[in-house]
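Hi U.,

Before I forget, here's the chain from the pilot set. I'm dumping it here mostly so it's searchable later in email.
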Amino acid sequence: MVVNAAAKINLMLDILGKTENGYHSLYMIMQSVSIYDTITVDKTNSGEITLSCSNSSVPCNSSNIAVKAAKLFFKSTNCKNSGIHIDIQKRIPLEAGLAGGSADAAAVIVALDRIFDTSLSIKQLSEIGLQVGADVPFCMQGGTMLALDIGGVLAPLPDMPECFLVLAKPDQGISTAQAYADFDNFKDCRHLDRQGMLRAVVTQDLNRICLSMGNVFEQVIEVLERVEIKRVMREHNSIGHCMSGSGPTVFGVFANENDAKSCAKELKKSIKDVFVCKPVGQGCVIN
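Structure:
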């Protein structure tokens, strides 16, 4: 089973507080984009879960989130694991705020549901996914969604209007756990216009979406290249730009494909990982 797993960006990310069990309660508007990892899951007779990856920086052992997802699938469904092999062709950058690991985990769960003919509902699949990671349920479904609480409460929204996106990931890794710890120690957070953003997305008003975009982590996470990336995006007629997740990736929204390509060409002079892509309506796509 071959699954293409889409990256995501956060059109909005606000932190509302902490839950009683210590997790952060979030308000996010998430969007799948056309950058994909390709995950292939094969049955074997090894009785084990094995993994390979095109990126040598990715651990290919039990610490990998894709392996954790497979283990939780078998535990949750009581399916006997006669052995599977997972291969990941990695295109989504690591530690980028683009949910690359979560997308891989989502793809594994979706693939195993098909391979073992468990016919789980999207709710059941999402319940397994949420045990793996907060972004996994969204990555299974994808598109444009409002995500609440720790990420498991999802509401589909109208598709984002047609546009072009430039994603630039500086050569800097951001620890998500450290990002939340830094936010907890930050006392002057300016919360975002959540109602305005929701109305903009519901009415599919691209200009208003871009005016309303925001990420509270930009107030506490230092990304050295962020100001320069946004300057280049503005010079190439972006209509909005924002950091995704806990960073460091910055994305810009463009109405014109030529402007997006021109911006990407300029950014590639100083940044290795730059992508031109579009919003897409699905997270996991089975080939």
